Amino acid sequence: MNMNETTQIPTVSVFGVPFSKLDMKETVKYLTEAVQSGQPHQVITANPIMVMTALDRPEYKQMMKSAELIVPDGTGIVWAAGVGGDPLDGRVTGFDLLHELFKAGETYRWRFYLLGTTAEVIQEAAKRLQMQYPAAVICGYRDGFFGADEDVAVIEDIRAAQPDILFVARGADNQEPWIAQHKEALGVPVMMGVGGSFDIISGKLKRAPKVFQKLRLEWFYRLLREPSRYKRMLALPKFALKVLREKENVTKPGY
Question: What angle do CA 49, 75, 191 make, to 5 degrees?
């Protein structure tokens, strides 16, 4: 995993994917340094489904390992690290990290670009975020419905806006590989996939109630709300079984 020149990130490997041990405050500090460095950094907020994808697809695993920072978004990652004997303090969820970066952005007057989901959702999310964080600068936004033939135009539009932070919501199978593929061309100091965060911020979807969050059942709440996700969710019991069967290998760096 690449490291920022100024900060050595302590990590724990979960089936060969290096997760940051930094808590939320330390993560924001690291990303503040990343913005100040001006160098491109990809942040991946990863869950067990993404780790299982990495185990099935070597190119996906390589893409993840090329990121500058991977944070434990899913409860299952924290649990697996504990079972493997190299515990993490807790989750650093993408949704909360997005808001923490906007809070920091008010202090530093950072510029944010929002990319992804539908035109209606992204416009509403941009409007609500600007109202919530008036001192942060939303320098551009656009929907995520474009093909590879439009990549160059989209990248040029983002570069012209000169953001400090780029949030991308194009689905887990697409957003991280897209950022990785175009990281150097985009040249944005911090680039992060945010999944369904814009849908929640815009009011289109509700975040899991606090009781589900406390019981670590946000994944179950999402399944109740979106039954079409069940095929994707099948990776969760497979991940749990793998962790229990291979306890001694879970956190081995050379997995």
Answer: 65
Q: What is the DSSP letter of 144?
A: S
3-state helix, strand, coil in the chain (%, to 5): 55, 15, 30
21-36 residue pLDDT tens: 999 999 999 999 999 9
Q: How does DSSP classify residue 116?
A: E
185 contact partners, CB below 8 Å, separation of at least 6: 155, 159
**How many other CB atoms sit within 10 Å of the CB of residue 140?**
18
Sign of CA dihedral 174, 180, 181, 186: positive
- The model's pLDDT over 163-215, given as tens digits with 9 standing for 90+, comes to 999 999 998 789 999 999 999 999 999 999 999 999 999 998 766 777 777 76
**91-to-36, 48, 95 alpha-carbon distances in Å:** 25, 12, 11
